[in-house]
Amino acid sequence: MTSCSPPSWESSSSIFLNDITPIGLGVLDDQIWISDGDNNRVMTLDMSGEILKTYDEIERPMHLDISDGKAYIPSYGSDDILIIRGDDIDTLSVDVEFEAPAAVSVSGTHIAIADFYNNRIAISDGSSWKSVGKKGKGPVEFSYPTDVQIFEDKIYVADAYNNRIQVLDIEGNHLQTIGEDQGMNAATGIYTDGVEIYITDFEHDRVLIFDMEGKVLQIIDQGLNKPTDVLLHNGKMYVTNYKGKYISIYEK
């Protein structure tokens, strides 16, 4: 009997973004949402990269999320979370004060927000808010958390300058730390589908892929230029490249 390795992700194509400097990435109805932090705008594109719509005057939008037909946009510069649906833009009502929100994730009634300069995660169950974390290197301690994703009953955090992933339960209790031994330098964007965990290693131009126990399955270190975010859509992996101003697409 021989064991078979899972298929690897291979480079497929790229979407070049011209003057867009991508940070956050989302997909809604086969439209790509990009937060262009340097130009204070959010763009929607078709799957070939043609710009469909631009939302201007958003102060440094960061790692966005799409849920229930709405785009949730953390405005790093104004300390707000914006909600976009069509032409309507609202502000999420919260009872915590942020200092540079870098990411938001929405799953049902639950919301998690990476509060960058406060080195914490703000969590809502739909009725109240709580904050977990502080500056440090221990469990539920962060060094500028940059991205966050709720998946089922867990919260996955890109603990950027601790160069690792932290996994919390939905209440914010520590469950797992991943990637500390991989030599990352700025773990910026995170995504999981419940089978694998993906993290962008910004300064080393890599994407690291782990299984759910934290074992490294693949490291992609070619064709990337300061990757900031990653997600899966329709069987493909999309990675934003901040410096290169393009999206790398991979397939198995």
Quick overview of this protein structure:
By secondary structure, the chain is an all-beta fold. The protein has no helices and 26 strands. The strands form seven sheets. A four-stranded antiparallel sheet has the order 1-26-25-24, with no helix packed on it. It has a four-stranded antiparallel sheet with strand order 2-3-4-5, with no helix packed on it. Strands 6-7-8-9 form a four-stranded antiparallel sheet, with no helix packed on it.
Could you explain the architecture of this structure?
With 252 residues, the chain is an all-beta fold. It has a single domain, classed as TolB, C-terminal domain (Neuraminidase), CATH 2.120.10. It has no helices and 26 strands. Strand 2 and strand 3 form a beta hairpin. The mean pLDDT is 96.
Low-pLDDT segments, ≥5 res = none
Give the % helix.
Answer: under 10%
Q: Looking across the biggest beta sheet, what order are the strands in?
A: 1-26-25-24
Q: Do you know the CATH topology?
A: Neuraminidase
Number of domains: 1
- Second-tier CATH architecture: 6 Propeller
End-to-end span in angstroms? 24 Å
- The chain-level structural class is mainly beta
Compute the average pLDDT. Answer: 96
Assign the CATH class: Mainly Beta
Characterize the main sheet: 4 strands, antiparallel
Number of helices: 0
Q: Tally of extended strands?
A: 26
> Could you tell me the radius of gyration in angstroms?
17 Å
Write the H/E string, N to C.
Answer: EEEEEEEEEEEEEEEEEEEEEEEEEE
The global form is globular
Beta-strand content estimate: over 45%
For CATH, the homologous superfamily is named as TolB, C-terminal domain
